Amino acid sequence: MKKFPLLLCLIYLVTTSFYPSGSENKKSLQPLSVKEIKLTPKKNFSPKNPAEEIYRQLQFADERLNFEVFEKAYLGFQNLKKSGKLQPTANLLSVCDFSLSSNKKRLWVINVDEKKVLFNSLVAHGKGTGEEFATQFSNVENSHQSSLGFYITEQTYTGDNGYSLRLFGMDKGYNDAALERCIVMHGANYVSEDFIKAEKRLGRSWGCPAVPRELAEPIINTIKNQTCLFIYYPDQNYLAGSQWLKGSEEKDKILDSLEQQKMATN
């Protein structure tokens, strides 16, 4: 009988020796430490278009300036600044869209820093440029035609047309004879809603971008002394040839490529 308890002890030792201890078991069941991986958001490779950012915030109370016209005006404005023709701090951009009827308010004065339309006004084109619509442009004296392109505003003076603003043409062959031709901004009685009602079109100048008499002084005082004025018309020769519009083709290629990539991934 003494051998039986010894046998039981032997069996117990043999059977329990193959199992890990409780502390070892607990250690093996401890949770794994997992390092958190933060996913970075996908980069937007589309370059920001500053002109679009500004345009989106502009409030147009009357006539709305076409975005493509504004984009071209802004491109030239920036190129003039880069070339040193305008001060780096310049923030006023005036745009005449002569593709529109003269019966519309087709002059805009914009503060691009504050993203505000300061003025939206009627503006006349030259007698030789067309009737209600502008169709012809010239850089030649006595043509009585308007001139396309970018201008830098100069000093004011008082002449035959009252308070006036000299304009320096920046596009060679298109408007660089502006000073010699006395192409200036001034007020005129024929630039008015009353004239439009009577004649079915706005009055015309001898080539100057004339504005309503009552707005001449506030507009001129706002944009005088080294600000940018752009007179637009969809003349393909001018748009392709102006040195101040260089860079638009490269930008268009980039945006077209990005648009194609976007369509391919959708």
From TrEMBL:
It holds the Pfam family YkuD_2. InterPro entries: YkuD_2. PANTHER family: HYPOTHETICAL EXPORTED PROTEIN, MUREIN L,D-TRANSPEPTIDASE CATALYTIC DOMAIN FAMILY PROTEIN. This is L,D-transpeptidase catalytic domain.
